[in-house]
């Protein structure tokens, strides 16, 4: 069934390659859609395939999920589409501004009111949810030390491959919420899930990229779609109908 739906784009390759030995990069050599989302950060074929899908979903304002659902199928198949972000004037004036959509698990970076980049993320699980709040980045750290959650676990030194924070940390703080941050991970397949203790996890390559250009004091608004809408933010994908052009000679 999926083969018929996605035949025009060739994106069905994503599904089949999860269980075969074909080189994903080579197979998509002539494809236009998902190959641009494949990173160089891992050798694991399945992980690269997963990240290609998650990045595509994030860039198209689709709920980030490692499964190709109806919304993703449509975005892959339709060529006439437009990603539309509506933001308040406060954000339009800011040099940099970050919005994290908890419903869609997407981190969006805005530069002077325009979408600069969208990233897939992992967020807090139900028992330790990521709070809806307007944060500010207060610190940045390379190879952060992980303290073990107040003695619950053994601390892990910065830069260690099993460090849950990965190799980058962008700390978030307000008077109400402390200890939250945007960081990398030691569990690559967790991206796209509600699985953390409340922090925002990113693909390691993505957070390293974000770290380089986002300055301290950047505002970070985090909320569900319902909350973001109250703040004047909407993130959607719109499909446009092609108008039929009549030939006057007919």
From TrEMBL:
Pathway membership, UniProt: Cell wall biogenesis; peptidoglycan biosynthesis
Similarity comment: Belongs to the YkuD family.
One function term, GO molecular function aspect: peptidoglycan L,D-transpeptidase activity
Top-rank lineage group of the source organism: Bacteria
Keyword Membrane included in the entry's annotation: no
One Pfam family, short name: YkuD
Entries under CDD domains matching the protein: YkuD_like
GO CC, one annotated term: extracellular region
Every L,D-TPase catalytic domain range: 96-223
The entry's keywords: Cell shape, Cell wall biogenesis/degradation, Hydrolase, Peptidoglycan synthesis, Transferase
Organism: Sporanaerobacter acetigenes DSM 13106
GO biological process, one term: regulation of cell shape
Protein name: L,D-transpeptidase catalytic domain
InterPro entries given in the database record: LD-transpeptidase, LD_TPept_cat_dom, Transpep_catalytic_dom
